[in-house]
């Protein structure tokens, strides 16, 4: 599954707005994840998960920045996220099902913040892109 | 069984009262067909689904989306008995329509995204959580009679 030129254009055109609010978007995405899918909290026993906590804001930013790395290297997401891929495979070992849950919550957050930009085409492009990112991150699992 | 707290029930009914069922149903079904194009397999008779604009503007998609959302709204009124409420529809989707229940989960998530788009900040993590429980409950109820 690879992204068409049109899909890449859509993603890159929205990225500016998203990265300008990286911390807010990242934090909200995680809050949505933990609220709708409480089982995902099992990966964060060491975090303060109260809404707006320093942990959530810092981790939310991290996640959005990483997505940004993929956006900026769309021809070569495997290389761009190689270290993260290893981290997830050997250290974090987050069950692959959770990437779908996080991706969904990111889409919901984007739809909520950018209703006009988040057209059906944009929705499709982002869903596909996040699915590619998720595949890269789980590629080395076994 | 879907367990919604009193707050969640209020959040869901409160938001739903502001939903334009005609628009949201068509948009949700349309987006399902655009984002997950393989779902078009059930709609050969719907005419032009060749690109996003065609899908989102398609009259049959809008009409069918409204039908689907009206059915979903029944679930909202019967949260304590989703399996009973959707028993007949479950049989229909299995025996006549031959729809893989995975599609119910996909549509439920698309509906959540559409609600987020329409309601913005008002679609808080808590409201989303309530709707996720509901859409999962409806999807499970629709799959319940499969054999």
TrEMBL record, chain A:
<keyword id="KW-0561">Oxygen transport</keyword>
<dbReference type="InterPro" id="IPR050056">
    <property type="entry name" value="Hemoglobin_oxygen_transport"/>
</dbReference>
<feature type="domain" description="Globin">
    <location>
        <begin position="2"/>
        <end position="142"/>
    </location>
</feature>
<keyword id="KW-0408">Iron</keyword>
<dbReference type="InterPro" id="IPR002338">
    <property type="entry name" value="Hemoglobin_a-typ"/>
</dbReference>
<keyword id="KW-0479">Metal-binding</keyword>
<dbReference type="Pfam" id="PF00042">
    <property type="entry name" value="Globin"/>
</dbReference>
<comment type="similarity">
    <text>Belongs to the globin family.</text>
</comment>
<dbReference type="InterPro" id="IPR002340">
    <property type="entry name" value="Hemoglobin_zeta"/>
</dbReference>
<dbReference type="InterPro" id="IPR000971">
    <property type="entry name" value="Globin"/>
</dbReference>
<keyword id="KW-0813">Transport</keyword>
<dbReference type="InterPro" id="IPR009050">
    <property type="entry name" value="Globin-like_sf"/>
</dbReference>
<protein>
    <recommendedName>
        <fullName>Hemoglobin subunit zeta</fullName>
    </recommendedName>
</protein>
<comment type="function">
    <text>The zeta chain is an alpha-type chain of mammalian embryonic hemoglobin.</text>
</comment>
<dbReference type="InterPro" id="IPR012292">
    <property type="entry name" value="Globin/Proto"/>
</dbReference>
<keyword id="KW-0349">Heme</keyword>
UniProtKB/TrEMBL annotation, chain B:
<feature type="domain" description="Globin">
    <location>
        <begin position="3"/>
        <end position="147"/>
    </location>
</feature>
<dbReference type="InterPro" id="IPR050056">
    <property type="entry name" value="Hemoglobin_oxygen_transport"/>
</dbReference>
<keyword id="KW-0349">Heme</keyword>
<keyword id="KW-0007">Acetylation</keyword>
<keyword id="KW-0561">Oxygen transport</keyword>
<dbReference type="Pfam" id="PF00042">
    <property type="entry name" value="Globin"/>
</dbReference>
<comment type="similarity">
    <text>Belongs to the globin family.</text>
</comment>
<protein>
    <recommendedName>
        <fullName>Globin domain-containing protein</fullName>
    </recommendedName>
</protein>
<keyword id="KW-0479">Metal-binding</keyword>
<dbReference type="InterPro" id="IPR000971">
    <property type="entry name" value="Globin"/>
</dbReference>
<keyword id="KW-0408">Iron</keyword>
<dbReference type="InterPro" id="IPR002337">
    <property type="entry name" value="Hemoglobin_b"/>
</dbReference>
<dbReference type="InterPro" id="IPR009050">
    <property type="entry name" value="Globin-like_sf"/>
</dbReference>
<dbReference type="InterPro" id="IPR012292">
    <property type="entry name" value="Globin/Proto"/>
</dbReference>
<keyword id="KW-0813">Transport</keyword>
């Amino acid at each position: 599954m690879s992204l068409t030129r049109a899909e890449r254009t859509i993603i890159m055109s929205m990225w500016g707005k998203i990265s300008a609010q990286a911390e807010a978007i990242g934090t909200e995405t995680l809050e949505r994840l933990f609220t709708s899918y409480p089982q995902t909290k099992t990966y964060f026993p060491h975090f303060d998960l109260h809404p707006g906590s320093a942990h959530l804001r810092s981790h939310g930013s991290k996640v959005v920045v990483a997505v940004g790395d993929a956006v900026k290297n769309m021809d070569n997401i495997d290389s761009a996220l190689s270290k993260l891929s290893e981290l997830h495979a050997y250290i974090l070992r987050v069950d692959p099902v959770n990437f779908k849950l996080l991706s969904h919550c990111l889409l919901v957050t984007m739809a909520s913040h950018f209703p006009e930009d988040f057209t059906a085409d944009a929705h499709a492009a982002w869903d596909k892109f996040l699915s590619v990112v998720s595949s890269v991150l789980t590629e080395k699992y076994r | 069984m879907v367990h919604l707290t009193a707050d969640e029930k209020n959040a869901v009914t409160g938001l739903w009262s502001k939903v334009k069922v005609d628009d949201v149903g068509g948009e949700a079904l349309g987006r399902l067909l655009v984002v997950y194009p393989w779902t078009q397999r059930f709609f050969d008779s719907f005419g032009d689904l060749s690109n996003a604009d065609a899908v989102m503007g398609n009259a049959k998609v809008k009409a069918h989306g409204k039908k689907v959302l009206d059915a979903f709204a029944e679930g909202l009124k019967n949260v304590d008995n989703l399996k009973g409420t959707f028993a007949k529809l479950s049989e229909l989707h299995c025996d006549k329509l031959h729809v893989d229940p995975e599609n119910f989960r996909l549509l439920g998530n698309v509906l959540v995204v559409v609600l987020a788009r329409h309601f913005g900040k008002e679609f808080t993590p808590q409201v989303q959580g309530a709707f996720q429980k509901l859409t999962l409950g409806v999807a499970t109820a629709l799959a319940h009679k499969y054999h």
